[in-house]
Structures are given as structure tokens and as C-alpha cells.
Design a protein that fits this description.
2 copies of one chain form a homodimer.
Chain A (H helix, E strand, L loop, with lengths): L2 H17 L3 E4 L16 H6 L7 E5 L3 E5 L4 H8 L5 E4 L8 H8 L5 E4 L6 H13 L3 E3 L4 H5 L12 E2 L9 H14 L4 E4 L2 H8 L1 E2 L11 E5 L4 E5 L6 H8 L4 E4 L3 H7 L5 E5 L5 H10 L1 E5 L2 H7 L3 H28 L7 H13 L4 E4 L4 E4 L23 E6 L1 E3 L2 E2 L2 E6 L5 H18 L2 E3 L4 H13 L10 E3 L8 E6 L17 E4 L2 E4 L3 E4 L2 E11 L2 E8 L17 H18 L5 H10 L4
Parallel strand pairs in A: 1-5, 3-4, 5-6, 8-13, 11-12, 13-14
Antiparallel strand pairs in A: 1-2, 2-3, 7-9, 8-10, 10-11, 15-18, 16-17, 17-20, 18-19, 21-28, 22-23, 24-27, 25-26, 27-28
Helix pairs in contact in A: 5-11, 10-11, 13-14, 15-16, 15-17
Amino acid sequence: MKQHICDRVAALRKMMKEKGVAYYYITTADYHASEYADDHFKEREFMSGFTGSNGNLLIGMDMAGLWTDGRYFIQAEKELEGTGIELFRMAEEGVPTTLEYLERNMKEGEVLAFDGRTVATRLGTQMEEMVNKKNGKVFYQVDYVDVLWADRPSRKCEKVFALDEKICGKTVAEKLDMVRESMKKNNCTNLVLSKMDDIMWLFNIRGGDVACNPVALSYAVVTEDNSYLFLQEKAVTEELRVWISSQPVILCDYEDIMVFLQEKKWSGTVLLDKENISYAIYKVIREQAEVVLGVNPTELLKSMKNDVELQMMKEVYLKDSLVVCRFMKWIKENIGKIPMTEISAADYMDNLRRETEGFLDLSFPTICGYKENAAMMHYQATKDNYKELAPEGMLLIDCGGQYMGGTTDVTRTFALGPVTDEMKKHFTAVAMGMLRLLNGRFLYGCTGRNLDILARGPLWDMNIDYKCGTGHGIGYILNVHEGPQNVRWRFLEGVKEVPLEEGMVLSNEPGVYIEGSHGIRTENIMVTKNGEKNGDGQFMYFESLTFAPIDLDLIDISIMERKDIENLNHYHKDVYNKISPLMTEEEAAWLKQVTREI
Amino acid sequence: MKQHICDRVAALRKMMKEKGVAYYYITTADYHASEYADDHFKEREFMSGFTGSNGNLLIGMDMAGLWTDGRYFIQAEKELEGTGIELFRMAEEGVPTTLEYLERNMKEGEVLAFDGRTVATRLGTQMEEMVNKKNGKVFYQVDYVDVLWADRPSRKCEKVFALDEKICGKTVAEKLDMVRESMKKNNCTNLVLSKMDDIMWLFNIRGGDVACNPVALSYAVVTEDNSYLFLQEKAVTEELRVWISSQPVILCDYEDIMVFLQEKKWSGTVLLDKENISYAIYKVIREQAEVVLGVNPTELLKSMKNDVELQMMKEVYLKDSLVVCRFMKWIKENIGKIPMTEISAADYMDNLRRETEGFLDLSFPTICGYKENAAMMHYQATKDNYKELAPEGMLLIDCGGQYMGGTTDVTRTFALGPVTDEMKKHFTAVAMGMLRLLNGRFLYGCTGRNLDILARGPLWDMNIDYKCGTGHGIGYILNVHEGPQNVRWRFLEGVKEVPLEEGMVLSNEPGVYIEGSHGIRTENIMVTKNGEKNGDGQFMYFESLTFAPIDLDLIDISIMERKDIENLNHYHKDVYNKISPLMTEEEAAWLKQVTREI
């Protein structure tokens, strides 16, 4: 029994009863629709004990449910055991969404409560509509968990810094022009931003208020004539204040955003992104101005990296790939000789990265899973729960860094010794899929949904699937996950898919996850390029940014097509040619061997 | 100069001027949103001279534009030459849709006119909205072309017949139950149908009012308690009348539909398919009842063939594939020995089909294109314009039949003698693509957009595309094209994609079309099947219904992967095993040779 969780849920129910609330909804989000919230915002984790990066909790008087996605099913089952909280497996057949659950179960006149700062406008308005139909009420200006959470960590407030213009490729003024042009196309005269990475991109600044994400707690408002940047007062250094005063930007206090929005004399319409602007902000603005619900123009602009950014990223990825090579060499040569655990291996990798020039931070906590632990997609070893490594089976390591010049993300799976034939077949199919997508040729207009089967096909041919997307966008000295592009296969009604544009950077990470047995993932980061343009259209292709070996000890050549073998050999040749010049002679000789032609 | 077309456009403009109309819009459609309209309805062809099966004409005072899709660009260019009508290439970069064109060019207060019986509700309401914004008017109860068209063919009125229940798999009563269940799920109490193939399916009847499509001009209304079938009085035989009286169906006169809809006392809501119900019908019903715009539930139900239908289709496809084999043998053995033209070759094919047991009609006019003519996707040889065949180059033949037991569609491209290496590479890539899609394995939830790249990939790898979908649904003794499933790649915002369901039948027809040089298409029909179901979901695959050889004289094995070679050899083995028992000994020996392992 996890008594502390049961106690917290009971305490919340007591408060709900006092306030006349039938259901209380707790998200994973901060006030900025961040994928990874800082500890201060982890109310859902506090209330449920579930530590995954995606999941929402719904507490009723006789029910408690946690919704999470396929990456976390195994982990959530373990973490929820003994809490009385039921796991709802998102997107599985017959499993309702939270909204559908409420629609079916809420009774006439009941009250739904949530902290409106942590719920996106889209969901908030859907919930409002649903509750209104039942003649109920929504309380959204509440935060009951805050009352229960005695030792809640305080909000972070790291110093904000401006990036050197030379590594941004565009000035703030140029970016504001691009954003205003997009606003005009959407017939909007004002834009409110609360997504931190969009704000960092627009103003060429970075912060440190979310672990591994160099973003600062912030809001921004762009009008036709002005731009307002809201930062925590204590996060602004004198140097930054001077720099901002030289930019077409008005600096405001983070705490003043709601008052500003309420008191501003809006002229024209206000563009809000319904996925990223909180319901609380939406409600304030809707009282003052005509709201247009759309997409942040910053999102698409940010995703298409400019030439300076791409050049910086290429260099950073070579250094980061060198780190992976060195890790591979170390673990292959030392396994069974020196004691190792999932934690010490991750530490070794992290330290190699920390020693790398330009390193700022990890881009996410390193995932290092041995044997069956790797079947948990986002497994984190802890000091109470980790595996010793031995010279057998496979180790999966997924890691990345923030560098002054780019954000990296890479996964490799290594054989530490003997493995089964099945593991080899699975590994080979994953490698084939990754390389088929990397080598895909397609027409402009394709979205990730058109291409997903290139990576997933070799696994589907074996009646195996992985329950996550194949790829995500990746930031530039920013969040390791960003939109709007992705590589996924499921059709979602009403969701606008974004064509892949030149300069978009994507991950390519198929995998196999066999519960209780093994997990495999091979992940490269790649950039979208324009190829031949002819009467049939603009053809496109990808270029890899990642150059790290794919473990030949795990390759079963018998299931590969000729093209797959060519793909692998070409890739390994590139790895050798690009990384060996950065190596010692001994390292280069080793790399030559592990990237040999098969 | 095509003077008659210029004269017609001038006469229309004169009428428009008299009536105060700025733009007149002419569709390809009949009143039933049929893909192929009977001659009576071909106003667009009469006014423009363009004979393709898809295209809309817009006439203004100083402009005349024809919009058509990529299948017809080459043909439309030729046919429009000298008419003063400009070609608008649908879906090409920078080309506005008709609606966008009108939005940009219509002036304040102007009038747009069209025959509302031939415009779908979706487009009609969009046009209404757009014109309203400009304070203009829509005249939709007009048909100016009818006035100009002196020798307009009369409306067809072939006898309607009931199908033997044994080959339908479901009775009318059972189908009505399925439809009403779907209506209930959509919270609708009434359904109005005007799509003829849906009506034929629902009532287990067939007609002959559209060339090659065994459908009758008809409407239907399904309420909670009754069903009404509207047929032309002269189309109803005594036998049919007796049969209908034994069914839960009330027979009504086709001419009475508008009055019926107007006078009906509707209880509850009326479900209309905005793509298939005409704007004229929509306007009448909207005045009387609450309209729910949705999708005909008949469409999805019809697309998932039941076991009886599939069994019948399997047998019919064997007979139809035998026809293709015999044609192939004949043309390969006789080319250069006896005179042949595109027309005589098509006739030979058609006659083989006509001699086949159960044959009712062709399912579309046979397309037989030699050399560069095959680059026109829907080329039709005419007695004034055809090519002689010679023992060189390639012949493309795309054809199919209506049988008492199924509708067929098949395309093969044959070498008649020496061909270039490039042609072989193109043919081989097409065959690889067709076979890769046919052998694709995928998860339930995939739509055609997920799979299109399997067929198109080998061509995209060569920077070649074909400007049409890869596959369409196919009817059962019905239209050769039906929805809702398809295999296409382009993302269309707001268009709901349909997951592939067990029993759905699809074409699989990649191609290469090199203007002025050659055209290649290889088309099989396949049925969607459930495969293994496991923790990852329901896996699915396809089974071929078509068993006709792929011309080995055109195969360049050097560009094929091992899996492609296996695919081809397995397929050819199946062709031999399934078709040879239907053949003479001499034919079987020939088939053995052309389906030999490579």
C-alpha cells in the first residue's frame, strides 16, 4: 500500500466535499503548456505517485483514474500499484478519454474543478461546454493541491541570458517581422504567447527554469507596433536589461501578466493557440477582445532552422556523436571487467558530454535501461531501483545535451555479451526501419503520417508495434521535443498535419519493447532537405545529423534486403569519415572496426 | 479554333447578361453526385469540349476556366486548345480552387448562378457563404445550358431488376436494420439518399441508367418506421413491383421526390451527406426540418463486403483474370503478324469478357493506349484518333466488367517488342510498388494515407510521381469506383480519413506517365483481411483478387530487392495455380512460361 498517496487523495476528497466539487482534474502541465514541468508544478505526481512525463489525474468521490500514453503503461502500472488509482490506457480500444469519461459519469448539476492555469484552452472550453450541457459548473480559479502540498518546491527563477546574435541567424527585429507577417495572414493584430520555447526563440534569450530545457518562465505579447516580454524580475540581470533596451521589446514583470491582459486596450483581434494558451488566460482575454483560436506562428517559424542554426547543429552533433562512440568503446571494452550499473553507465555518458566544449546541460535525464528495464520506454533507474550490468543481453541508452550551438538527442542499444536470435532479429528490424526512413525520398506535401510506415514497416511485418510516435521535432538550444512536425501514423480527426519543410529537424526512433524481456531503440536526428524539383513537384529527403555506430554485434544480416545493407554500410562509412578525425589513433582504429562493411 | 465551343460560351454569356449573372458554374455531375454522368447530364462537356470524367467549368464575362485533376492535364490541354477556355490544374502550387477564384474575383453585389441539382451541399453552402459576404446572390434553381442545348440526349430509363437474395448476402430488411443502427449512432431519425449506388446496395436492386454502372436514377428516404424508394415509373417492371411489395419498402415515383421532401411531416432530424446530396435538395429539406450534415451510413456498410459477396467476387475475378491472360497470349503471339490498333485490341479484350459466363456489361470503357498515348491516364482512342500497334514499345490496357457476381477492374502493361532500358526500369518500379502494397502488413487504424508510400516509394526514389491516387474502393456489381476508403497520400484539411476495415476491396494501381513517351500502370484489386491480433493491436493485410501475369519481358531484375523478387515469384505462382485449371493445355503451358520464377 502506498499510504501517503491514499492519504492525499482522501484529503483532496474532503476539500472537494466542502466546496461542493464532484470531480477534480489535475494535469501534468505548468502554466506554459510545457512538456516537462518543473518540480513546483508536479501536482499530478504529488497526488498519484506516477512520475511519467505525460498523464492526467481525475479524482471523484468514488473513483480515481490516471490517464497516460503507451510509453508509460508498464511504468504506471508499477507506480500506481496499491494507490487505488486506476490506470486508463490512452488510445487503447474501448478506453474513454478523460472528457468522455466525465461526459458519461458526471451527473446533472455537478461541479468540475481544475486549476485553469494548467489546462489548455482547447480542453478547458470542451470541458466547459460538456459541463454546461449538464447544467453544472466549472471552477477553474482554484488550486486545491497547493493547499495540501506542505513542502511544495518553490518556483524556479534562474538568470536569463541573451544568445550571441551570430549563432541565432536572425535578429529579434527580423523574427518579429516574420511573426507579424504570419499574424497578418491570419488576419490577427495581436498575439499572446505563453509557450516558453517560442518566447525564447522569438527574443533570442534562454533561461533555466525547467530541468534540461533552457527556458525561462515568461509570457509575451506581440502587437502591430510593440512587443512585450514578461520575465520574473529576479531572473533579469543588469546585462540583460541593457541588451533588451536595445531591442524593439518592452520588458515587463512576469507577475503582471494577468493584470496587463485585463487592462490592455486591445485594438483588433487576439490570436491564441488553443493548445498552448491556458484556459485561465483565454477566459481573461475573451472578456476584453475578439479572440481568434489558431496556431502560434512562432511554432512553424522556429521549426524551420535557418542556415546558421543548421551549421551550428551539424558541428554540435559531430561532437555529441563522438561522445556516443566513446561510450560505446568504453562499455564494450570494460563490461565484465569493472563493475557497472545502469546508473554508473549513464553517469559515464553524462560525464563525457559534460567535458565536451560548449556543453550547457543535458537535454533530458539520460535513460539507461538494461535487459527488461529497457522495455519501459522512459525508464529511469533510481538509487533504490537499478540493475547491475553483466556481459550478456542488451543495454539501451537514450541521452542528449544542450550545447551553445544546438540540442542533441540520440539512442543506441548495445550488446553487452551473448543475446538471443530473437533479440538480433528485433534489433535488425529496428535498424532497417530507422535507415529506411532516413533514406526515404518523398514529395513536398508529405507529413509525418505518410512516412511513418517506412520506419515501422519492418516491425509490422513481424506483427510487432511500438506504442509511440517514430519522430518528434527538436529545438535549437531549446526543448528536445518541439512541434509542429512529427512522424506518427494514427489518424486524429480534426488535427492539422504539417507538411515537412526544408530545415525541419526530426528524430527517427523506431523501437521494440517486449515487456519483461528486452527493449531496443535506435534514434538518429535528421534534417529535412529539398531535393530535385521537377514537373512532378519538389522532392525531399533527409540528412542525418547523428553519426554514431549501430552495433553490428546485434545485426542479423539474413533478414535484411540489399538496400538495407547498403543503407547501413553507407551510414557507417559516413560515421567513420566524420568522427574518426576527432579521435585518437587508437579510437579511430576501433571505429573503423565497428563501422566495417557487412 | 473550335468555333462551336466559342459560340456556346458566347450564347451563355448573352443569357447571363440578360439575367444579371456575373458567373455561371457548370459541374460534371448529374443529380446524384455520380462520378460518371449519363450523356443527358454532360453540360460541362457540351459547353467546353473537355471529355474527362472530372472537371468543372466557370464562365464569367471576361473569363472561362476549366478545373480538372492531374489525370487529365494532358488531355484537357489538347481538348481546350482553341476554345479560349483556360485550364486550371487542380492541386498544383499557386492554382486557386474555383471557390478561391470566385472569392478573389467576384465583386460586391454580383450574382453567381448554377444548377443546384448538380452541386453538392458542401460546395453549394460554401459558395452561398462566400457570395453572402460580398452581398451578392446565388441563383441555384436555373439551368441555362439546357436552353442552349438543342439536341440534348433524353434521360435514360432502363428497367430495374432485383438481385437474387442468394448473391447479396443480406436481405433488404437486414440492410435497413444496419442503416437504422448507424442513423441512431448519429442521433438521426431520417436519412435521405440520392447516391444511386448506395440506393442499389440498400434495396438489392440494379439498373442501367449510367453507362457501365448498373444503377438506376433513384432517390430513397429511410425513416424510423418506413423506407421509400423513388424510381422512374417506366423503369419499374411488373415483376419488380411485385417483389418490392414483398419488401419493407414503399415504392414512389422519381419525379415526386421534391414534392415528397417538401410535404413530408418530418419527425426528428434528417441526415444528409454534404458531399452527395445536392444543394437543391438540401435547401428544400432545410426549410422543413433540422438537418444533420454527415456521411451516408450506407457508404461504409456497402464498402465492407460480406462473405457471400467476397466469395462471389473471388470466382468472378478468376474468370476475369483468365480473360486478361488470354488477351496477353493473343497480343504477344500475334503482334506484327496481324494488323492491330488500339481500338481492335480493346475490342478483342471486350469480346473475351462478353463471352464470359455471368457478364453483364463493361465496368468502364476500356482504356487501351499504345506508346505515348498511354501517358494520358484516361486516354480513349476514337475512330478518328487512334494508333496502329507495332512489335515495339508498350501497350497499356485498363479494363473491367460487370458480372452477376462482381465488378472487376484490372490494368496491365505489355511489351509488344523492344523497349528502352528506361521503360523497363519504370515498369519494374511500378510492379515493385504494386507488390509492396499488396504484401503490406499494417495495424488496424491505418488509412490509405499511411500505406500509399509503399506503392509510390520505388518511384519517388527515382524522383517520379503519378498525379493520382494509388487506389480506390470498388463496388459489388456496382460502380467501379466507390468510397469511403482509398489509397492516396495528400493531406486534405478537414477530410475525415477512413481506417481500412476487413472486407474492404481496393484497387492498387501505381503508374508512370511520361508525356510524349510512354505510360505504365499495373493494377490489381485486393481485399483487406484481419491478420494476427495481439497486445499491439489488430494486424491486417491484403489478399489479391486479380491473378494476371506481370509482363516479365519488362522486368529489370537488377533494381529489385530480394523481397520484391519473392513477391513477384509468389504472385506468379498463385496466378498459375489459380488460372491454369481454367485453361486449355496449350494455354496452361504458355501461362507456366510467362509466370516462371525469376
